[in-house]
Amino acid sequence: MRALYTLLLHLAVPFVLLRLLWKSRRQPEYRRRIGERFGRVPPADGGTAVWVHAVSVGETLAALPLIERLVERHGAGRVWVTTTTPTGSERVRAALGGRVRHSYAPYDLPQAVAHFLERVRPRQVVVMETEIWPNLYRAVRRRGVPLVMANARLSPRSFRGYARWRRSIAGVLADCTRIAAQSAADAARFEQLGAPAVSVMGNIKFDLAVPPAQRERGRALRARLGAGRPVWAAASTHEGEEAAALAAHRELLARWPDAALILVPRHPQRFDEVARLVEKSGLRLARRSAGEPEPGTQVFLGDSMGEMFAYLAAADTAFVGGSLAPVGGHNVLEPAALGLPVLFGPHMHNFAAARELLLQAGAAYAVDGAATLAQRLGELFEAPALRARMGAAGSEAVAANRGAVERLLALLEQTALADRTPALP
Predict the structure, then answer these.
(1) Which of 125, 196, 205, 297 is the most exposed place for a label (fewest CB within 10 A)?
(2) CATH architecture of the domain with range 212-400
(3) Residues that are catalytic
(4) What are the pLDDT digits (tens) for 96-107?
(5) Class (C level, CATH) for 33-207+403-417
(6) Burial group, residue 169, by CB count within 10 angstroms (0-12, 13-18, 19+)
(7) What is the pTM of this model?
(8) Mean pLDDT of 276-304
(9) What integer pLDDT is reported at residue 424 of this predicted model?
C-alpha cells in the first residue's frame, strides 16, 4: 500500500503544481517558494532542536503558546516551524519573526522528505493535530527521531474514513513515538485504528493567551463604532455564511437601527468578494484595510490577518463560522476566552468537545440558519445580564481546562530523553 500511495503521489505532482498556480490567481503567495514544498530549504547550522508542523492559520495560532515555550527552552533559531498554506506562513512570520526558522512543509514524496530532513536535521518532530503522512513518518522513524502527534483529534467521520484502511493506517501510526490526544474519545478512536502509544493531554487551544495590544485595539474599535450600540461579530465565515449573517443583521436592524456587524471572512482571497456582497445588500460598509469605521457604519469588514482578537474584543457576542457551512467549525474558545456569548451552527465536528463544553456551561447557543441566528442575537441584545452570565460561564470554562501545553512540554521532554533506536533499517 505504501508503494501504491507513493506512486500515486508522484503521478499527482503535475496536478498539484497546477492547483498551486490556480490558487495563485487570487493569492499570489501560492506560486512563491515552491521549492520549499520539495524540501529545498536552507540548511540549519547545528541542526534543529524541534521541528513543529502546523498546517494553516488555526493550527498555527493553537501552536503559538507551545512554540513560544519551546523557543524559551531551546533558544532563538533552534525551532523550525512549517506550514502548508500562505496564511499560516504569514501568521508564523508575524507572531514569531526571526525567533524561529520557517518554511513550507515538504510534500510527502520520499526524496522531498529526505532532502528536507537532511537540511533541517531535527532532533524531535511535533505534528499538530491530525496530519498523517506515511513517507514522512517512516523517514523520521528510520532516523530514530522522536515524533509526537500533538493536540491530536479524530472525529467520528474521519475515523470511519481511516477505518477502511485500518491495517495500513496502523502501520503509519506505529511510526509515532506518542500520540497526544485532545480527549479520551479521540484517544479511543486512535487506539481502535491500531495506534500503540496514545495519551490524553487535553486541548492546547484552551491555553490561548489574548494579546493585550489586541484587546486594547478592540476597545478602540468599539469606541469608534459607538460604545452604546449593540455590536456582534461573525468570525471566520465561509461562502454562504456571510449571506446568512447579513440576512440576520437586516432583521436586527428592524428592532435595533444602530446595530453593527463586524464581519471577518476566514480566507483573505474572499475579502473583495464579501465586500461586494455587503455593498449589494445596501448596508453601509467600512473596511479595515481602508482605515477606521465611521460611527454610522452598519457592517465593518475585517479584511486583515492576525487581528481576530481585536475584532472579537469590540463585540458583545460572536457567531463562529465554518459551522453553518459544512466545514466542521472553527475555534469557539477564542470568543469564550474574551467573555463573549458564542453562537455556532450545526456543523461542529472539528470542535465537538469544545461545543459540548460551552453548551453545557450555558455559554453558547446552537443555531441552524439566519432566522435562528437573528432570534438568538435579539435575545442577547435585549438582556445584558444574560450576556454577562453566558460570557462569564465561557471564560470560566476555558480557564478551568488550561494546562495542556505544560503537559505536552513534559511529554516532549520525556520523548526527547528516551533512547530511541531506529526500529527499521
Answers:
(1) 196
(2) 3-Layer(aba) Sandwich (3.40)
(3) 59
(4) 999 999 999 999
(5) alpha beta
(6) buried
(7) 0.86
(8) 95
(9) 57
